[in-house]
Amino acid sequence: MTSSFIFAANRTPFGRFGGALAEVRPDDMAASALTSVLAKVPGLDPAAIGDVAWGCANQAGEDNRNVGRMAALLAGLPASVPAVTVNRLCGSSLDAAITASRTIETGDADVIIAGGVESMTRAPWVLPKPERAFPAGNVAAFSTTLGWRLVNDRMPAEWTVSLGEANEALGDRLAIGRERQDALAARSHRLAHKAWEDGFYDDLVTPIPGTTLERDECIRPNSTLESLAGLRPSFRPNGTITAGNASPLTDGASALVLGSEKAADIVGTTPIARIAARGVHALNPQDFGIGPVEAANKALRRAGIGWSDIGAVELNEAFAVQAIACIDAWDIDPELVNTRGGAIALGHPLGASGGRILATLAKRLRAANQRWGVAAICIGVGQGLAVVLENVT
Fold it and tell me: Which of 44, 148, 153, 207 is the most exposed place for a label (fewest CB within 10 A)?
């Protein structure tokens, strides 16, 4: 079996809910990310792309009908290039990269584009079909932006609590208080702003044509412990989770070019990182926030290394409390984690976040001349996903 490598990565700026990208359809957003990443490998003949693996969590509106395939066609790829859309909720684009890496390693393709998209702004309301024609009563519409909808009555109630309530319970169980959560959130905003000011994201982010957004829209560089402490709890009257220490609803897309050992001749450039190992883990749905803990531990064992070998970690900050819980469980230096900001500041467009953390991790490893890194993400309904990258530059 061959190894799989990342050759290029790019993403759109992430826009706030109802913000600068609100008028951009998700299929167009995905096509823009695809076009931008291909522009970084001009020597690649698009006809040589073996597949497109694309992540998307909702797929209830304009992102239906295999948005990966729609994006490939809208981006101008030959109709002969196939595409698939992957749904592992928040881990969708990381899972798309994993799917691509496995396909490459088995020899079924030499070059695959992986990525993901989410427009949480444009996610529609949905109505269930009536069991009988012409019901006399009212029918409820369900938002598909985030979380459970059309819940099966056979699901135990503790499995289907809101994402926020699940993480309030996690904070209670692990005694992770409001101040620690707000401190992580303030750090996320500070480091994200600094990364943009330092130019870290300049070659990783390309604006969508026809829009004015050039940087991630949710960053609040003036966030402090004091300002965050003034926000009201979002899920419990006396809870610890607020709009300030949880990731915001966001729109955006990310894309990566993956290839085999011999793909350098096809792509026309050298790889930047090797996908060394992967891990997936599942647990009770309400405990999804700590899903990355064992997913990353499994990936490290498969890579034949330990946490002491890791020089950089990109952990998606769905909620500050769950990020802290993962860092505590791994017993690692928090300063290894999200040094260019995390999802609390940058945003969390569900289907695109995995591609973002993978691309950021690859660049962090190169910038610091570190060999090994971990990208990990928690996933609703009780899962976690992780990838170990090896720097090959």
Answer: 153
293 near 318, Cβ under 8 Å?
no
The span from the CA of 204 to the CA of 155, in Å, is 41
The span from the CA of 9 to the CA of 15, in Å, is: 19
CA dihedral sign, ordered 284, 290, 293, 296: positive
Active site residue 378: yes
Backbone phi, psi, residue 61, to 5°: -135, -120
Task: Report whether 29 contacts 208 (CB < 8 A).
Answer: yes
Spatial neighbors of 153 by CB under 8 A, at least 6 apart, are none
From the CB of residue 7, how many other CB atoms can be counted at a distance below 10 Å?
A: 23
Of 56, 90, 218, 326, the active-site residue reads: 90
- 85: tokens are 């859309």
The sign one gets for the Cα dihedral 79, 82, 88, 90 is negative
- Decide if 286 contacts 166 (C-beta within 8 A): yes
Catalytic residue among 56, 218, 326, 378: 378
For 154-200, the DSSP string reads TS-GGGGS-HHHHHHHHHHHHT--HHHHHHHHHHHHHHHHHHHHTTT
Per-residue pLDDT tens digits for 169-210: 999 999 999 999 999 999 999 999 999 999 999 999 999 999
- Report the DSSP pairing between strands 15-16 and 250-259: antiparallel
pLDDT of 110 reads 98
CA dist., res. 115 & res. 254, Å (int): 5
Condensed to tens digits (0 to 9), the pLDDT of residues 249-308 reads 999 999 999 999 999 999 999 999 999 999 999 999 999 999 999 999 999 999 999 999
Residue type, 276: A
What are the residue ranges in the chain where pLDDT is below 50? Answer: none
pTM of the model: 0.96
Which amino acid is it at 37? V
The hierarchical CATH code for the domain 5-123+248-391 is: 3.40.47.10
For residues 54 and 72, give the distance between their C-alpha atoms in angstroms, rounded to a whole number.
10
Of 287, 319, 247, residue with least CA distance to 384: 287
DSSP code of residue 293: H
How far is the C-alpha of 8 from the C-alpha of 188, rounded, in Å?
25
- pLDDT at residue 303 in the model: 98
* Cα–Cα dist 264/262, whole Å: 6
